[in-house]
Amino acid sequence: MLGIYAQHAQTYLLVLMIGTTFFFALPIFIAPLAWARLMLWRIPQDTDLAVYFGRCLGAFILIVEFLMLRGATTVEATAYAFDVLFGVFGLMLAVHVYGAIRRIQPITETLEIGFWALLLLLNTWFYPAFPA
Questions:
Q1: 91 — alpha (psi -120 to 50), left (phi > 0) or beta?
Q2: Positive or negative torsion for Cα 58, 60, 64, 67
Q3: Distances in whole angstroms, Cα of residue 126 to Cα of each of 54, 73, 121, 123, 129
Q4: CB 94 within 8 A of CB 111
Q5: Global pTM?
Q6: pLDDT at 51 > cutoff 50
Q7: Which of 66-70, 87-91, 128-132 shows the lowest mean pLDDT across its residues?
Q8: Residue 105 above 70 pLDDT?
Q9: Beta carbons of 33 and 43 less than 8 angstroms apart
Q10: CB 118 within 8 A of CB 68
């Protein structure tokens, strides 16, 4: 049964990406508490929401860790891992700058701005620009 619809793999990924972008990624990124209310979390009573978001974030960090491992051990996956890291580091930088400007995060999170900027710089320096 594995791959029974393989000829439609790219269409599946495109449809899945569009759906999850509009129903999960963008709402959680732009307005996490509004999304939580829509999903029937009771705000602010449901303090388990922070645990839920933390576990979700941890799950995605583990996926990125796996991509880095693949990139470190498989030449074909190296550039892709770096491309993903550009997205992660860039968005994390934006999230932390936004929080600093709005003054809605502790100083430890604001200090992370330098960390994410450094990772973007390192990602640029170490990007696998293989000769053509």
A1: alpha
A2: positive
A3: 30, 15, 9, 5, 8
A4: no
A5: 0.86
A6: yes
A7: 128-132
A8: yes
A9: yes
A10: no
3-state secondary structure the chain: CCCCCHHHHHHHHHHHHHHHHHHHHHHHHHCHHHHHHHCCCCCCCCCHHHHHHHHHHHHHHHHHHHHHHHHHHCHHHHHHHHHHHHHHHHHHHHHHHHHHHHCCCCHHHHHHHHHHHHHHHHHHHHCCCCCC
Tokens of residue 39, six digits: 């999903």
Q: Which amino acid is at 1?
A: M
The structure tokens listed for 73 are 């051990």
Which tokens belong to 47?
Answer: 């303090």
